[in-house]
C-alpha cells in the first residue's frame, strides 16, 4: 500500500522536471531565434496582443522574412516603394502602420521629400526583410501567453537622421501656419531630439509608440548588425521638390542664387551718362522703329490721298488770268457725253470677281426664297432646334470635381482609385474660423469661451465625423 504513493510521487516529480527542462529549452531556443541578426530575418513578426488602451503589440519572433501575396505586396509598394520581395510584416501589421503614419501625413504633405523620408523610416522599422540587421529587441512582455515586444534598439546612421531632419525642419503646417515639427516632433531642434520624441513609449490612451524605441547610431561590436542607412531625399531635390515656404534653402527660392545668375548674364551699354541694360535698349529701339513705321505709313497714305484729290480738282488756265474752268460749268451739249463716261467708269469700278459674283447671286436668290416661304423656314428652324434639344434628355450635372479635371481612364484616376480602396479616402483639410458677434452698443465682442460655444463646437465635430 505504501509503494503506490511512493511510485506516484516519483512519477509526478519526474514529470515536473521534464516540464521545467522543456520550458527552459523552449525559452533558450526562442531567445536564440529572437536575437539572430542576419540578412533575411525578422525580430518582430505578426501581432500577438494589445495593451489595455487597444494599441497592438508585435510578436517577439525571429522568424525569416515571408513572401507576401500580390495584394499585400501592392499595398506595401504604394506606401513603402523601397520594400521589395520578402517582408517582415503581416497584413494586420501593415494596416496598423498605415493608420499610424496617416496621422502625420497632413502635417508633412506640403513637402514630398520630407514625407518620403519619414515614411521610409517607419517602413524599414515595420516591414524591412532585413529587420534583424538594425533592430534588437531589448525587452519583452507576456500578453495572453505570448511574448510581445516591449522595447527595441533601432540602429540608424547619423547621415539618415540628419537628412530626415534637414528635409523636414522648415516644413509648415498650413492650417496653423507653424512648423510641422511642433506637432509631430515636440518642436525638436535636431534629429536626436526628434528621435527621442518618436521613441518615447506612449502612456495609455495617448498617441505614440506602444513600445519604447531607442535610436542608436552605432551597433555593438561582433554583433553582425548594420545601422539602417536608407537614402534620404533633400527638399531641394527636383523630383520631390518642396515649396519655398517649406524649403527656403532651395535654389529656386534663394535670392543669392537668383542674383548670382543675373549678374553672370548681365549686359549693359553706356550712352553718355546713361548705362541701360541691353534688353531695355533693344526694346526701346524696337518701339521707336515700330512707331516710326506706323506714322510713316500714315503720312505716306495721307500724302497719296491728297495728291489724288488734287488731280480731281478744277485746274487753273493761265491764259485766262487764273480763272478756273470746271467740268461742271461746261456747256450743256457736253453733259450727255460726261454721263456716258461716268457710267462707264462706275461700271468698271464695281465689277466683281467670279466667286464674289456667284456668292452674290446665290444669297440674293436664297434671300428671295426665304422671304417668299416664311412659314416653311420658321417650321424647319424650330424643328431643328427641337431635334438638337433631345440631347438634354441625357443631360447630367457633374458634381465631383475630380471627374471634371481628369478622365476616368487616366493614370491619375487609377492611382486615386487604388489609394481609396487600399489605403483610405484622401480628405482635404479645411480651416474653420469661429468668432463672436460684436455688441451693437459698445462694439466689443464678447468672450468666445462660453458653455454654449463649447457645446456648439462639439456638435460641429460630431457632424463632421458623420460625414467621414
Provide a descriptive summary of the structure in words.
The protein has 468 residues and is mainly α. Among the domains are: 28-256 and 412-428, no CATH class; 432-468. Helices cover 48% and strands 8% of the residues. The protein has helices at residues 3-34, 70-79, 91-102, 105-108, 112-127, 158-168, 181-184, 191-198, 255-264, 278-312, 335-349, 354-372, 374-388, 401-405, 411-422, 451-467; strands spanning 47-50, 56-58, 135-143, 146-155, 172-173, 178-179, 212-216, 315-316, 324-325. The protein has a 3-stranded mixed β-sheet. Strands 1-2 form a two-stranded antiparallel ribbon. A two-stranded antiparallel ribbon has the order 5-6. Strand 3 (135-143) and strand 4 (146-155) form a beta hairpin. It is elongated, with a radius of gyration of 44 Å. 19% of the residues are buried. Mean pLDDT is 80; it is low at 6-12, 17-34, 256-262 and 315-333.
Low-confidence stretches: 6-12, 17-34, 256-262, 315-333
Largest sheet: 3 strands, mixed
Q: What is the overall number of helices?
A: 16
How do the strands line up in the largest sheet? 3-4-7
Distance between the termini: 76 Å
Rough outline: elongated
Order of helices and strands: HEEHHHHEEHEEHHEHHEEHHHHHH
Rounded mean pLDDT score: 80
Classify the secondary structure makeup into a structural class: mainly alpha
The percentage of residues in β strands lies in: 5-15%
Amino acid at each position: 500500500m505504501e509503494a503506490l504513493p511512493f511510485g506516484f510521487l516519483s512519477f509526478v516529480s519526474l514529470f515536473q522536471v521534464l516540464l521545467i527542462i522543456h520550458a527552459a529549452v523552449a525559452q533558450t531556443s526562442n531567445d536564440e531565434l529572437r536575437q539572430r541578426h542576419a540578412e533575411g530575418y525578422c525580430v518582430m513578426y505578426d501581432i500577438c496582443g494589445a495593451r489595455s488602451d487597444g494599441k497592438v503589440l508585435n510578436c517577439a519572433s525571429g522568424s525569416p522574412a515571408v513572401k507576401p501575396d500580390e495584394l499585400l505586396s501592392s499595398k506595401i509598394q504604394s506606401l513603402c516603394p523601397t520594400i521589395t520581395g520578402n517582408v517582415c510584416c503581416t497584413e494586420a501589421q501593415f494596416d496598423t502602420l498605415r493608420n499610424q503614419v496617416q496621422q502625420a501625413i497632413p502635417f508633412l504633405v506640403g513637402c514630398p521629400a520630407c514625407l518620403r523620408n519619414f515614411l521610409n523610416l517607419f517602413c524599414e522599422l515595420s516591414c524591412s526583410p532585413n529587420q534583424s540587421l538594425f533592430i534588437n529587441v531589448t525587452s519583452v512582455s507576456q500578453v495572453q501567453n505570448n511574448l510581445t515586444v516591449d522595447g527595441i534598439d533601432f540602429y540608424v546612421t547619423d547621415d539618415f537622421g540628419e537628412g530626415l531632419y534637414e528635409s523636414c525642419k522648415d516644413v509648415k503646417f498650413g492650417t496653423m501656419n507653424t512648423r510641422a515639427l511642433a506637432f509631430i516632433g515636440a518642436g525638436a531642434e535636431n534629429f536626436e531630439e526628434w528621435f527621442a520624441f518618436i521613441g518615447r513609449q506612449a502612456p495609455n490612451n495617448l498617441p505614440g509608440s506602444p513600445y519604447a524605441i531607442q535610436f542608436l547610431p552605432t551597433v555593438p561590436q561582433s554583433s553582425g548588425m548594420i545601422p539602417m542607412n536608407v537614402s534620404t531625399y533633400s527638399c531641394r531635390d527636383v523630383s520631390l521638390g518642396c515649396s519655398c515656404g517649406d524649403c527656403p534653402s532651395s535654389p529656386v527660392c534663394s535670392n543669392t542664387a537668383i542674383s548670382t545668375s543675373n549678374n553672370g548674364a548681365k549686359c549693359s551699354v553706356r550712352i553718355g551718362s546713361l548705362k541701360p541694360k541691353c534688353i531695355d535698349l533693344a526694346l526701346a529701339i524696337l518701339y521707336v522703329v515700330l512707331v516710326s513705321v506706323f506714322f510713316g505709313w500714315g503720312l505716306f497714305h495721307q500724302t497719296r490721298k491728297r495728291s489724288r484729290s488734287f488731280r480731281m480738282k478744277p485746274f487753273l488756265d493761265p491764259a485766262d488770268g487764273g480763272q478756273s474752268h470746271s467740268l461742271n460749268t461746261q456747256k450743256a451739249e457736253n453733259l450727255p457725253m460726261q454721263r456716258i463716261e461716268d457710267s462707264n467708269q462706275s461700271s468698271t469700278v464695281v465689277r466683281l470677281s467670279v466667286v464674289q459674283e456667284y456668292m452674290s447671286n446665290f444669297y440674293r436668290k436664297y434671300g428671295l426664297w426665304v422671304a417668299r416661304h416664311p412659314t416653311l423656314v420658321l417650321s424647319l428652324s424650330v424643328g431643328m432646334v427641337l431635334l438638337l434639344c433631345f440631347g438634354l434628355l441625357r443631360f447630367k450635372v457633374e458634381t465631383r470635381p475630380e471627374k471634371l479635371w481628369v478622365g476616368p481612364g487616366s493614370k491619375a484616376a487609377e492611382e486615386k482609385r487604388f489609394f481609396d480602396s487600399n489605403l483610405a479616402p484622401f480628405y482635404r483639410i479645411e480651416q474653420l474660423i469661429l468668432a463672436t458677434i460684436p455688441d451693437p452698443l459698445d462694439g466689443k465682442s464678447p468672450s468666445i469661451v462660453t458653455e454654449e460655444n463649447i457645446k456648439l463646437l462639439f456638435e460641429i465635430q460630431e457632424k463632421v465625423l458623420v460625414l467621414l
